[in-house]
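Target chain:
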Amino acid sequence: MQDAERKKLRTIFEDLKYTIEAKDNLQEKIQEVTTLVSEHKHTEKLVEAYEQSAQVYQESLQAHKEMIAMDVNVVKTVMDINELSNYIHRTVSWIYQNKKGIPRIQIGEKGTLYFRKNKIDKWLSEYDIPAV
């Protein structure tokens, strides 16, 4: 796994850790609110606890949205033929027809085809058309 991928994974796991901590904090705040409501005391503290809970929830929700939005293709370094088809927007049959020109891993004469993402990216860059 390359450094950029490790860094991206580390960021994802740190965000996930933060989200879990935020969830635990939210549960504590909810318990605090429940206690305050049941005792009918400290209205100001009740409002403050509610606002803090709402803030924690919003931060947790934002962290989840960011994790979902991250491109998980960065983590995936080897693709099968269906993943390659989705990645380069070509049909599986097109890939089979043109496999001799596509960098691939094939174990055995009729083995399953696999494709390294970095090799595919390099291969695709050969077809870049420079801006005029």
Notes: The longest strand covers residues 113-116. The beta strands are 78-80, 105-106, 113-116. Residues 29 and 51 are 10 Å apart (CA to CA). The helical segments are 3-39, 43-69, 81-88, 92-97, 117-125.
